[in-house]
Amino acid sequence: MQDKEEERSLVNVERKLNADGFTADFRVADGKLYPLSDDNKARGYAPEEVTIVDFYRFEGESNPDDMSILYAIQTADGVKGTISTAYGTYGDTDVDSFLKTVEDLGKDLDKSHK
Question: What is the pTM of this model?
Fold first, then answer.
């Protein structure tokens, strides 16, 4: 298994997470987490139904302000996937607020997937 320090590129991390079953892409709307899909009836998940399994920070090579975070997430009914946001000033406030609520509930960093 690679050390997290060796997982420098977003592509490598996403490939590893996909291999580990984190295949859904998520978005946040109206305070809920939704899997991106063609199905407009996709179920929304409240913060208490979500666990942050892991996260990875990436810094732009030419600009330290160009940072993003990729979160590996699992829902209470077993849907596993990822969501990303810019770090700091450029972050998506809906995503940041939702994930902060998940963290406040103590449902972050369940690293049992490794």
Answer: 0.79
CA dihedral for 26, 54, 57, 106, sign (positive or negative): positive
92 near 86, Cβ under 8 Å? yes
- Residues 59-110: tens digit of each pLDDT: 766 665 668 889 999 999 999 999 998 876 667 788 889 999 998 887 665 5
* 3-state SS record for the chain: CCCHHHCCCHHHHHHHHHHCCCCEEEEEECCEEEECCCCCCCCCECHHHEEEEEEEEEECCCCCCCEEEEEEEEECCCCEEEEEEECHHHCCHHHHHHHHHHHHCCCECCCCCC
Q: Please answer whether residues 35 and 41 qualify as being in contact, where contact means their C-beta atoms are separated by less than 8 angstroms.
A: no
